[in-house]
Structure prediction request, 254 residues.
Amino acid sequence: MPEILEVEMYRQAALPIVGRRVRSFQTDDTIVVKEALPIQTLVGSRVREVARHGKLLTIHFENGSIDLHFGMAGRIIVDGRSPIDELVYGASSNDRWIRFGIEFDQGFLAITDPRRFSRVAASRVHDDLGPDAFNPDLCDVVRRHLPKRGNIKGVLLNQGVVAGLGNMLVDEVLSRSRVDPRRDIATMKPQLIKKVFVTVVSVLPELLERGGSHMGDLAAELRKPGSGCPYDGHELARATVAGRTTYWCPRHQK
Ligand SMILES: [Zn+2]
Prediction:
């Protein structure tokens, strides 16, 4: 599933479209593109910027903007190339899975998505999103978004608290911070909460460098019953926490 790191790779892959003029939009998939008309009005407009906030990618044109959400399995294709060959949960670049496309005066951008959870729409104001997880000042700016209670895993997954973290990144952050994902934030001292967000800030560039959110120490291949902790070998615990399948080490995460 594309988390903030994958969408950041999509953003970087899309940078070559800046300055190009739109020749046409492919908007016929009515599940992925609910309202095509506001998008079609941007034909003839040039791309000014490709921006990202959390897992949301926004293409700014001269005359408006569109938001791209990649759902569970959406991938971006720019000029025939994808920045990631395969998501951990399996997408493919099969042509019949193209759900949205932009043809420019030169080249094209497309979204492929076998599961059709991607969404493309004219931009709106996203005041429901917390600060971007890549924000270097995250520890300070996240404070006013923190809830008083609730398990820490759910807090980190809440896009209104911090935008961009998904299931695998949150498990990685909590493993490195030595915090049990079920622990209620009400029981955590401010220093420990700060440690969790310091870890977010340090882990993202590291895993971006390694190649994605599945490349943590608590790697994708360890996410199965019977796996050992990458740090101390203790058998990992597994449960549904905050609605998501969660792995953690009962020995070093308290
Ligand atoms: Zn451990």
Remarks:
- DSSP finds six helices and ten strands in the chain.
- Residues 87-92 have pLDDT under 50 and may be disordered.
- The chain has two domains: 4-122, 138-248.
- Helices lie at 4-14, 37-40, 138-141, 152-157, 167-177, 190-210.
